[in-house]
Amino acid sequence: MQYFELFKTSFTDYARYVGNEILHPHWGNYFYWLIGISVFFFALELLFPWRKNQPKIRKDFWLDAFYMFFNFFLFSLVGYYAFSNVLVHLFNDFLGLFGLENIVAFEIQSWPVWAQLLTLFILRDFIHWNVHRLLHRVPWLWEFHKVHHSVEQMGFAAHLRFHWMETVVYRTIEYIPLAMIGFGIQEFLLVHLFTLSVGHFNHSNISVPLGPLKYIFNNPQMHIWHHAKKLPVKNGVNYGITLSIWDYIFGTHYIPKDGRDEPLGFENLEEFPQTLPRQLLYGFRRRK
Ligand SMILES: [Zn+2]
Ligand SMILES: [Zn+2]
After folding, report:
1. What's the 222 CA to ligand 2 centre distance in angstroms?
2. pLDDT at residue 76 in the model
3. Residue environment code for 72-87, b if the CB has 16+ CB neighbours within 10 A, otherwise e
4. 163-182 pLDDT tens trace
5. Roughly what angle, to the nearest 10 degrees, separates helices 139-149 and 113-137?
6. Quick one: which of 22, 48, 92, 161 has the most CB atoms within 10 Å?
7. Cα–Cα distance between 11 and 13 in angstroms, integer?
8. How far, in Å, is the centroid of ligand 1 from the Cα of 145?
9. How far does residue 125's CA lie from ligand 1's centre (Å)?
10. What transmembrane ranges does the database entry give (predicted)?
């Protein structure tokens, strides 16, 4: 009963939060940051396109725009936020059975804010790099991740085109390591906006020479190969999310040539559903 109450209040709290975000623009407002950052990269694509003959409003532009808002807000609204709150509560109650109050292994809350932000950012990006590799290696996870790889014409909005199950997988796997250093499910605006911007950038139809920084930050010229249809290895390359450095350290980087016109997708892409409802159901169907 207590969990049901928590679910209900979390649900209404989140609905109120999203309503407030839309009605009251302010500097800490995710809704308008998402719009602002998207408009910025769209403007760059229009002004300085890498693939000049790709349509300005590319294939699936509107579908991806919808995914963007769905994955950023609506999915949380329809219960993910409430559901995860209940799970966290259950998990803590479970720890309580053993007399544990939390699983914090070392407190970094006493560190200077910049050091906390940097630690959170690097640790989380490394966890995400590993989760992304899993999405490619574990067959049933790949079925969900295919939604992201079904993009045929690349552009900034493809960044947030992914199945909601990915949110569940990423959040579940990152929860325990982050809780161990004293981070709850709260996120820092700055880290979030930075990763959002680099994610949009990686998928943008623009070419920006980063110089030696390309060994640290992911970029469109590297990420396009992650989406390439034909690869020399089965499980993919360039798994980097925000940082490219993990691929260089672990030898999964691959940029054989300029990938500007490289065909994107995966084998038998033509059989993959084109509409949102069927894409969302795709990973749940029984595999032959
Ligand atoms: Zn991938
Ligand atoms: Zn991608």
Report:
1. 10
2. 66
3. bbebbbeebbbebbbe
4. 989 988 998 888 878 777 77
5. 110
6. 161
7. 5
8. 7
9. 14
10. 30-49, 61-83
Phi, psi of 23 (to 5 degrees): -80, -25
Return the ∠ at Cα 77 (arms to 76 and 82), rounded to 5°: 70
Ligand 1 centroid distance, CA of 113 (Å): 32
Give the single-character DSSP code of 215. G
Q: Are 162 and 148 in contact (CB under 8 A)?
A: yes
Q: In angstroms, what is the span from residue 148 Cα to ligand 2's centroid?
A: 6
**Residue 77 near residue 18 (C-beta atoms within 8 A):** yes
Is there a contact between 200 and 35 (Cβ–Cβ < 8 Å)?
no
Q: Which residue type is seen at 240? A: G
Higher pLDDT, 205 or 164: 205
Find, among 122, 141, 126, 154, the residue nearest to 236 by Cα: 141
Q: pTM of the full predicted structure? A: 0.86
Residue pLDDT, tens place only, 131-140: 999 999 999 9
- As a whole-number percent, the residues of the chain with pLDDT over 90 amount to 52
pLDDT tier, 185 (very low <50, low <70, confident <90, very high otherwise): very low
| Closest to 199 (Cα-Cα) out of 223, 176, 182 | 223
26 phi, psi to nearest 5 deg = -155, 170
Could you tell me how many residues make up the chain?
A: 288
